[in-house]
Amino acid sequence: MVFLGQFPALTGATMNIRQGEVVLIKGPNGAGKSTLLRLCAGLLPMRSGTGTVLNFDLRTQRMELRAHIGLLGHRTGLYPDLTVNENLKFWASAYGANNVEIDKAMSFFGLNDRLGSVQVQNLSEGQRRRTSLALLLIKRPSIWLLDEPYAGLDSNGRELVNSCILEATQLGTTVLIASHEIDKIGSTQERTLLVKGGRIVSDNEEDSEG
Amino acid sequence: MFRDAWLVTKKDLLIEMRSRILVNQIAPYTLLILVLFGFALDADTETLRDTGPGLFWVSTLLVAILAIQRSVDVETSDSAIDRLMLSGISPTSIYVGKTIGLYIQLIILEALLFVVMVVLFDLSVVNYPLVVVSAVVTTLAISSSGTLYGVIASGLGVRETLLPVLFLPVLAPAVIGATRAFGDAFGRVNADGWAWLGLLSVIAIVYTLVGMLTYGNILEDT
Fold this sequence. Notes:
The complex is a heterodimer. By secondary structure, chain A is an alpha/beta fold.
């Protein structure tokens, strides 16, 4: 069980996700999708229940887990006063990545040299999203937690996100996506969870097994 | 730890250089405070000289509140704090990095404030080493406790109003000590400034250690 303040945001979530799976988390606004992702990222404490992500206990080893997680939240987590290049270089240094990885990620998401020198506060929503996604490529975490990753992206941007996800899963990355906007990514290991009122009410894998 | 801390410091200073909030907004506010004190206490320069050390530190504290709020805003405005927590940088490194960043900004503001005060209040310094060392130590106390209380207030969601209420009482002993030390350095009070500096050093060390030990837990709860 997870509380946001006094509000029980997630009250019933039982799931077992395998490495390399792509899990689409669907549900209405306020259902608990973002809370579920933040719980898996180790950013929220569990009031009750048990959970393990990458063999890290969600009650006692949240701090150790976080270095292996890539989270794209509603907000981009960038510094608006810094340029795209400065943001990427700061986070790359924090992740221990090098310039080659920065260039590769920038080029993948179409962040050219001209955009690199623009302050993030002057970018469009879609460009900020791309910058934020580029940071996932730079960090190369074991699990990607994407909260509405398609928000603000054009069709080209959405295709880039999908190909990026598929490429990552082929390398064994597990991806959880909370989104209203898609029903399918195209991965062979794809699964859909439906969250309502803080509970997982449907899991198409369990449904098909049952 | 120090590599990561320095990374955070460099980032905070770069953000300040880009946004120029320190130069364009906080520094003018600092000067305005001193000028207003000058008007409020009349043109009696003797009164200004006697109260100068106290006015300097009160002004510094008021300015520090703005700088602290800015330091917290940088991390919370677009949830960069979440990314920072997921980056693998330890909370202690984040704390040390942000404290050093705030420290450098406050030292720059204090230098400006000092020059203006000496000129405006017609003060003469009799002990420069005491001025420098007490400013260095007191600023550490302010920045270390400010970084900690900034994140506490941000977690409670009412940062603008709550931060001064939490922060100013904690800093009261440091301000008393710093005012005494400055008073001695300016030759305005009959006090042993170096003895007050001893107290200031203890306060600065304790606040820094408490910050390093507790910042991670507080960050978890915010």
